[in-house]
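Model: Ready when you are.
Researcher: Fold this.
Model:
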Amino acid sequence: MPWAVGGLRLGRDWVAAPDPAALRARWALLTGSEGTERERLFRPSRVRTPAAGAAALPGQRSAATARFTDAPGPCPDPVRVLREPFDEQWLLPDQRLIDTARPELWRVRDEHQVFLVEAPGPLPLVTAHLPAGRLGRIRPLHRRPGGAEPNLAPGLPALLGERYGGWATPEDFLCWVLAAGRPGPRGYEVPLAADPARWRAGLELGHRLLTVQLRGARGGEPPRLPGGRRPYVRSAVGAWPHGLAYDAGSETLSLGSGTVSPVPAGAWEYEVQGVRVLEAWFAARTAHRGPDAEGLEALGPAEWPQSWTSELLALVTTLALLADLAPERAAFEPGPGLSAEGLRAAGVLPPPGWARRPASVLDHHEEGPGGQFALL
């Protein structure tokens, strides 16, 4: 997957939040302020200030491009993003507010796209939403909208199809990465199996991992726990839960006086870089009520939204299934691999320079700062 892009750098945390209504409230407060108060709320950086204009983000044609100080415009509709590992939140898609928005990723973001994220840890992240956090390098599965061109080294699909006795799709390769990729000194290292049987075994495992991570996106079925088990709300979450706790004996997760069960131990213990995912998820939703919250970041829901509880139930299922698959993935052996010499001889390695750069995908003019057409 030669084309890789660094992660988005938001520059100010208030432009993203778990609750889209909070983002609209923050926009209203910011645009209703003036002078030094607007400057303080905005939190300017070297790259973005209220007095600076920016181009419209691709796909967000209603976005304003005038200087924020002069004409903020209407609040853009928040879009779903992956903010932290397994934590889907919302973002204000206005490039005037974002230090490094990566427009090249927005150009290929559509209902066909899937993003592979080289996040810290043994398992890469895969998401149907634009990654917008401190996650790692991003590799889109497709170089153009509509899934028209795979982000694979030219010649690789044909070589794999010939080697394994059938055409290998971009999704096949993505599944293989999930099953066989391992962290290395230069990023994830992905050996290619010489044995077709090992390739098929890796695809089967990788497909299950992909299905779990996508959580029903792209037309798939939401994953479910085996044996008919399903986490339920046993006691309603109160107006605002003040803590998160877990009881392994009863497999119960407590949010204040509210309880959810069954929550398998694997879901509670699932960690990324030594941090429990469920605890990080809960902390992100209570941050606006913390003592360190100030300015726009302190604006959030006054009561716990019911939608967050639904998201929690889906997240528990995702983490439990990934925990169940972790031993199988750790034990998976791709066997003897195709040699780098053979891939070079087939013209697959090294990928040409153009494959490492974004494709030209413009089918319309993009509006630059101040309403001018962007020159690309």
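Researcher: Now this one.
Model:
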Amino acid sequence: MARPRIKDVARHAGVSEKTVSNVINDYAHVSDRTRQVVREAIEHLGYRVNLAGRHLRKGRTGIIALIVPELDIPYFAELARHVIREAEERSLTVLIHQSGGDRAHELAALAGFGSTFVDGIILSPLALTADDLRDRAGFPPTVLLGELLEEGADHVAIDNEGAAREATRHLIGLGRRRILAVGGRDDSGLGTAEARTRGYRAALAEAGIAYDPAALLPVASFRMPDGARAVTRALREGARPDALLCLNDQLALGALRALHERGISVPGDVAVIGFDDVEGGRFSVPTLSTVAPDKAAVAKVAVQLLQHRIEEATAPEGAVSGGQVSGVQAPQDRIVAHRLVLRESTEGHARH
């Protein structure tokens, strides 16, 4: 049996081929009744859209890349799931690349892997600098995640500094004064850890608590063993914290283990809070309080911005007016929501 074509759908639905095309492309000016009839015809005939042909006719491949530092960090795995889901709704395929936080790998990814098979890139950089991103001539359209490195780029993040300030304020509100920042860094840099450290220090200053550089516990990477080692080392060196602000949930989960092994009660002796709201924190003992970014919103905004940039880059000559395609905005710095999720590691009982 021959594969059904768009004209077969049009004939079955009693509409024009153009109307069928409008429904497939989800154009708004089709009535709900007509849209329903066409979709029923598509389902009845088993018609499938030739996505490859559609993309190629527009000068695109229909493939976007998501570049993250490490896929086995739960936050990035969960974010990738949301990006894939959002892209599928736009008939896009996602290629996922792990950079390892290596500058050479991030630069290669930013350049489209030396080919033209990627229409655009969503990049979470760790090693790139503002200079690396300043001249992007010839690079595929790119949306950055995390802290803003270059003002001329589309960018999506939560307010990391504000979120850390909020989390630290909560710990202070519980009466905690000796708060260590696990993963904290010199706050003069541009990265996410630096922004969260600035928020931590701002909250201390607001409460009149003196900042001690020794309260920053550096880590080699943001994994559970690093959190456990950092806290164990601090305790051995005589630190007596009553709270830990951990700059991601992996560090926090490692910290919980280190505290448990030394017989330190959480939250009785030490309250612990993390960042990212990964699934493991909901099943730890005690369950982990955390800053929860709206990962679905990060993915939605990032894919939406990237799709606009791709349309702009592949628009036919003459379709661009004043340097923009209709509906595509100037470079965007988009901040999405976060919320403080309070569980047993700070509250002593679960709150959601």
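Researcher: Key takeaway?
Model: Residues 195 and 216 are 13 Å apart (CA to CA).
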